[in-house]
């Protein structure tokens, strides 16, 4: 990977080796590279290689799509690691990290009903106390990740963490709005790239991985499984649903490269998503429930985390070339 990164830098800095002009062939070659990287186990990520719209659909269609997603029956809550629990819906997922001093919830779902039934109720079903929620970490300023926050804030008074960029976006003009989402929570803790939130001896590094939004955060932290340590990255924002915006795709591509380096450096061997469609979390939880003594399907190994990031990076490059080819 180091070699590739080095070559990548050469390509960017040397005028003699300018990147290839975008063409149908370059689009295809990036899609093919993504498909090769995805293999048979990461096929769900290939969804990202489908052509993305150059403009957002009309609001009515957005609202209809969100309503349909929210209406899907929710999976049961579950345990992925000794101290990491799934408390999500079928579409957007939420995760709860238990520490010695309380619980951190990542991405508190779409709305009050989901937060009450799936986070509040889900934690109780798992034998955890939702009154122990101390932090809500919101990956980015879209309502499917903050919509349940106001309910949890009112009930349990946790601190809310988001990037400075996305707080500003939610305070000024929402990039994505829907009648199905409440108003965003008020600015609380703003973080920059690499800032940490620490609770009960567990440090959560918040890495800025811009693209899906300008201030998307991907949290990185340790968990254990049967006492063995693993390092997790929650990829904070996946889809290219921002319309024709090439610089945005460039930052996405750069974020996948940087996180590949981090995965190698820190031995990140688990990558999960905040939408189950991309990481098969619900199927993995089901497998773990059936065979608790078997291998943990969430443990991918760092090479496979790097491969997943490659799939996303290649799909972003394909989409960038598609946009560049448009008049
Ligand atoms: Zn989003």
Short description:
This protein is of the alpha/beta class and 327 residues long. It has 11 helices and 12 strands.
Question: How would you characterize the overall build of this protein?
Answer:
- The protein is an alpha/beta fold.
- The chain is built from eleven helices and twelve strands.
- It has helices at 2-13, 24-38, 59-70, 112-125, 143-146, 149-156, 164-171, 246-266, 276-279, 281-290, 302-325, and strands at 78-81, 84-86, 95-99, 102-106, 133-137, 159-163, 189-191, 195-199, 202-208, 217-225, 228-235, 270-273.
- The strands form two sheets. Strands 1-2-3-4-5-6-7 form a seven-stranded mixed β-sheet.
- Helix 8 runs antiparallel to helix 11.
- The longest helix is centred in the last third of the chain and has 24 residues, at 302-325.
- The chain binds zinc ion.
- The site of zinc ion has 4 residues, from loops.
Beta fraction of the residues? 15-25%
Distance between the termini: 35 Å
> pLDDT below 50 for ≥5 consecutive residues: which ranges?
1-5
Rg, Å, rounded: 19 Å
In total, the number of strands is: 12
Ligand identities: zinc ion
How is the secondary structure organized here?
Elements: H1 2-13, H2 24-38, H3 59-70, E1 78-81, E2 84-86, E3 95-99, E4 102-106, H4 112-125, E5 133-137, H5 143-146, H6 149-156, E6 159-163, H7 164-171, E7 189-191, E8 195-199, E9 202-208, E10 217-225, E11 228-235, H8 246-266, E12 270-273, H9 276-279, H10 281-290, H11 302-325
Parallel strand pairs: 4-5, 5-6, 6-7, 11-12
Antiparallel strand pairs: 1-2, 2-3, 3-4, 8-9, 9-10, 10-11
Helix pairs in contact: 2-11, 4-6, 8-11
The structure holds zinc ion.
Zinc ion (ZN) is lined by residues 140, 142, 212, 237.
């Amino acid at each position: 990977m180091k070699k590739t990164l080095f070559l990548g830098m050469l390509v960017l800095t040397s005028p003699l080796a300018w990147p290839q002009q975008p063409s149908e062939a370059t689009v295809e070659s990036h899609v093919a590279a993504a498909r090769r990287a995805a293999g048979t186990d990461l096929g769900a990520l290939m969804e990202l290689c489908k052509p993305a719209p150059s403009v957002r659909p009309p609001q009515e269609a957005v609202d209809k799509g969100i309503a349909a997603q929210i209406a899907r029956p929710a999976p049961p809550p579950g345990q992925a690691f000794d101290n990491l629990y799934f408390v999500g819906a079928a579409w957007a997922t939420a995760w709860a990290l238990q520490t010695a001093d309380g619980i951190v919830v990542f991405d508190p779902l779409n709305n009050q009903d989901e937060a009450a039934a799936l986070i509040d109720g889900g934690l109780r079903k798992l034998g955890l106390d939702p009154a122990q929620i101390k932090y809500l970490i919101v990956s980015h300023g879209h309502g499917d990740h903050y919509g349940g926050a106001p309910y949890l804030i009112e009930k349990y008074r946790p601190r809310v963490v988001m990037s400075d960029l996305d707080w500003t976006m939610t305070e000024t003009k929402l990039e994505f709005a829907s009648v199905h989402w409440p108003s965003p929570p008020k600015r609380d803790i703003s973080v920059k790239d690499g800032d940490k939130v620490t609770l009960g001896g567990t440090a959560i590094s918040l890495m800025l991985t811009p693209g899906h939004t300008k201030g998307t955060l991907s949290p990185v932290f340790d968990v254990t499984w049967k006492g063995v340590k693993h390092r997790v990255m929650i990829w904070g924002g996946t889809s290219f649903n921002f319309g024709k915006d090439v610089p945005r795709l460039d930052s996405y591509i750069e974020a996948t490269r940087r996180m590949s380096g981090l995965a190698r450096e820190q031995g990140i061997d688990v990558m999960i998503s905040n939408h189950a469609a991309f990481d098969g979390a619900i199927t993995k939880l089901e497998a773990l429930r059936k065979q608790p003594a078997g291998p943990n399907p969430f443990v991918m190994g760092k090479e496979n985390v790097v491969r997943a990031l490659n799939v996303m990076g290649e799909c972003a490059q394909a989409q960038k070339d598609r946009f560049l080819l448009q008049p």
